[in-house]
């Protein structure tokens, strides 16, 4: 099979297309013929060495396709099923292995491309709005990068929860997308100071929660727009890592809460995985959740896909198509 390999950390050029043996599933594993693989910032962090991973590495964990082989002791899923996972062992490839309890079947009305697009980002949006800070009717959320892959889904789910949504974006086109997804207010951060504008939009009260995937350039000001006892959910660092923080700052700014969640801890059990994906797939099939696939790249152009994501040009999900 063909796969992308990283032998040494570095820039996008570190992603090299190579021929490898097709893996065979072991005990409790299944093999997916990958028809679409999601591209996420975590793979960029791994490629750069910001997140440590053993090398050589086949990046990627998010995949959708057809289950084409099963290992011993697998009974709940079957060859020929359309499935998706966020725990594939190297999805930047034509085939990937997954633990059987980490795959979910795809219902009618959900394509493999949409499934690959929604697994990581959709699960993230779901746990942010339902578990990290369970939004209630009448609460206000500030969502950074509201036209990005997670942002678009999180805006829609937050509105389902009855929240008021203020989104930040980097261009007028992205502002249009955020409004289409349901954002009540949109701030162009390149033109307007989001801290001052958020305070104005909330009459000085601030917001109940900040969902921040941007990191370095938004974090400190984001703390300043939280209500007392508000929560900062920092779930990414597209602008770079946040500087070390003295916890006393949280006290001074209003007994704030700070968390750095990751999706793996919010799908720790199969039941939780099926709950979140069941909600997402049900909403998609019913036309109640819009998933925007921004661009697709052939597997051989994984480096261009990473560069596109790093340049923060995305207006939705980026996928690799291995075939």
In the CATH hierarchy, the third-tier topology of the largest domain is known as: Quinone Oxidoreductase, Chain A, domain 1
Q: Kindly provide the radius of gyration, computed on alpha-carbon positions and rounded to a whole number of angstroms.
A: 20 Å
How many structural units, i.e. domains?
A: 2
Overall number of strands = 15
Q: Gap between N and C termini, in Å?
A: 10 Å
> What is the beta-strand fraction?
25-35%
CATH homologous superfamily of the largest domain - what is it? Medium-chain alcohol dehydrogenases, catalytic domain
Q: What structural class results from the helix and strand content? A: alpha/beta
- The helical percent reads 25-40%
Average pLDDT taken over every residue: 95
Shape: globular
Output the number of helix runs.
9
Taking the sheet with the most strands, its summary is: 7 strands, mixed
Question: Which regions are unreliable across 5 or more consecutive residues at pLDDT < 50?
Answer: none
Describe it for me?
By secondary structure, the protein is α/β, with parallel strands linked by helices. It has helices spanning 41-48, 112-132, 149-160, 172-180, 194-201, 219-224, 248-252, 270-285, 302-310; strands spanning 2-5, 16-19, 29-38, 63-70, 82-85, 95-99, 103-105, 140-143, 164-169, 185-188, 207-212, 226-234, 257-259, 293-298, 317-321. The strands form three sheets. Strands 3, 4, 5, 6, 7, 14 and 15 form a seven-stranded mixed beta sheet that branches. Strands 10-9-8-11-12-13 form a six-stranded parallel beta sheet, sandwiched between helices. The N and C termini lie close together (10 Å).
């Amino acid at each position: 099979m063909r796969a992308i390999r990283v032998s040494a950390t570095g820039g996008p050029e570190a992603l090299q297309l190579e021929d490898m043996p097709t893996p065979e599933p072991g005990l409790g594993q299944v093999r997916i013929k990958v028809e679409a693989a999601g591209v996420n910032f975590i793979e960029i962090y791994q490629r750069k060495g910001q997140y440590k991973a053993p090398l050589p590495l086949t990046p990627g964990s998010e995949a959708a396709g057809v289950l084409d082989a099963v290992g011993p002791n697998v009974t709940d899923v079957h060859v020929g099923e359309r499935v998706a996972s966020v725990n594939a062992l190297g999805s930047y490839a034509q085939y990937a292995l997954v633990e059987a309890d980490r795959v979910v079947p795809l219902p009618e009305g959900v394509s493999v491309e949409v499934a690959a697009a929604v697994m990581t980002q959709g699960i993230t949006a779901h746990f942010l709005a339902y578990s990290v800070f369970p939004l209630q009717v009448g609460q206000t959320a500030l969502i950074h990068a509201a036209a990005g892959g997670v942002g678009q889904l999180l805006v829609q789910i937050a509105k389902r929860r009855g929240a008021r949504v203020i989104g930040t974006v980097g261009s007028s086109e992205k502002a249009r997308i955020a409004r289409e997804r349901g954002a009540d207010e949109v701030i162009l951060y390149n033109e307007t100071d989001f801290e001052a504008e958020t305070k104005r939009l909330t009459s000085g009260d601030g917001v109940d929660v900040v969902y921040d995937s941007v990191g370095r350039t938004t974090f400190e000001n984001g703390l300043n727009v939280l209500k007392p006892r508000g929560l900062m959910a920092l779930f990414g660092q597209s602008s770079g890592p946040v500087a070390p923080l003295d916890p006393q700052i949280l006290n001074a700014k209003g007994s704030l809460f700070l968390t750095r969640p990751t999706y793996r801890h919010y799908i720790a059990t199969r039941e939780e995985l099926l709950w979140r994906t069941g909600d997402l797939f049900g909403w998609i099939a019913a036309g109640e959740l819009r998933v925007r696939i921004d661009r697709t790249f052939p597997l051989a152009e994984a480096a261009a896909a990473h560069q596109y994501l790093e340049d923060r040009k995305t207006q939705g999900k980026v996928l690799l198509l291995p075939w």
